Amino acid sequence: MKQTIEELENIVQKYKPLFEKISDEQWSAKPSPGKWSKKEELGHLLDSAQSNIRRFIVGQYEDQPYIVYAQDKWVTISNYQHYPLENLIDLWVLLNKHICFILLNTSFENAARLVKTQAVHSIEWLASDYNKHLRHHLHHILEMEPVPYP
């Protein structure tokens, strides 16, 4: 789990400064109707962080909790398109630091506990997958080399 935590810390340190290179217009532009803007995609990463925080915590005291979320509804209801960008970025940083703190305090035994999403996985697997999902979306937002994600 230590490697996953360090990887997440590095992701935050590496990618946050790159957000400053994106203009306000680029953050708000929608590539087409029905597609997320960069702000909305970052908002999706906030929702993902919150859902994973719940998985990482509840999974340590409930047996195979079922924790999923309707990502499009969360983005729409949260109205990230009109959310102050600076707050979105700050919240993204803080939520990911919080995840690192939770994982740092997760015992080896609890890291092996299972959580049900679309499938059943250990907390440790979900934490590693969270980083992959994060990099996938960050590369899309920043228009970098695509990172495949299932």
What distinguishing features does this structure have?
mainly alpha, globular, 150 residues, 7 helices, 2 strands, Four Helix Bundle (Hemerythrin (Met), subunit A), 63% helix, two-stranded antiparallel ribbon
How do the helices and strands line up, and which of them pair or pack?
Layout: H1 2-19, H2 24-28, H3 38-58, H4 71-78, H5 85-104, H6 108-111, E1 114-116, E2 120-122, H7 123-141
Antiparallel strand pairs: 1-2
Description:
This protein has 150 residues and is mainly α. The protein has one domain: Four Helix Bundle (Hemerythrin (Met), subunit A) (Up-down Bundle), CATH 1.20.120. It has seven helices and two strands; from the N terminus they run ααααααββα.
* SS content category: mainly alpha
The CATH topology assignment is Four Helix Bundle (Hemerythrin (Met), subunit A)
Spatial arrangement of strands, main beta sheet: 1-2
Q: In angstroms, what separates the terminal alpha carbons?
A: 22 Å
Shape: globular
What's this model, at a glance?
The protein is mainly alpha-helical and 150 residues long. Helix content is 63%, strand content 4%.
